[in-house]
Fold:
Amino acid sequence: MAIFLTEASTVVVQGMTGSEGMKHTARMLAAGTRVVGGVNPRKAGTTVTFPLPDGERVVPVFGTVAEAMAETGADVSVVFVPPAFAKGAVLEAVDARMPLTVVITEGIPVADTAEFFAAAQEAGVRLIGPNCPGIISPGRSNVGITPADITGPGPIGLVSKSGTLTYQMMYELRDIGFSTCIGIG
Structure:
């Protein structure tokens, strides 16, 4: 049984049009994740085309998380913005009441992290990260940077502070498989 993330989860990528966001959005789409939009105020109204093994996927770019949620019904955000902009991006997701926000960005100042965690707790928004590999429900959905091909679906749940150890455990127990793996950062 997957928790937090299922094949029905719909994802927006904050920072999708940057180099890391583009690379990992393509990987998430290839893993079957339902990426329904990107967020970049400077590129709102555009689209990004991702080549996939089964054809192309065109993903719209929105100006804000709230716009993306209203247009697509997204229930997960993943943050791939530079550290200097991460606090603002996370607070934007919190203000929009995004149910689950996964913060991949590393190097965010501790004071910024404390501020957005307090805001998320007050708003009832679940945060994973920062500086984490994300969350994966193998065979269902993958939000973040976790390699999708190192394990398969199964009965094990995993929560880890170390991204590398998360990957290693997933690989070592690949014959059994995982329902959900979360790297909390």
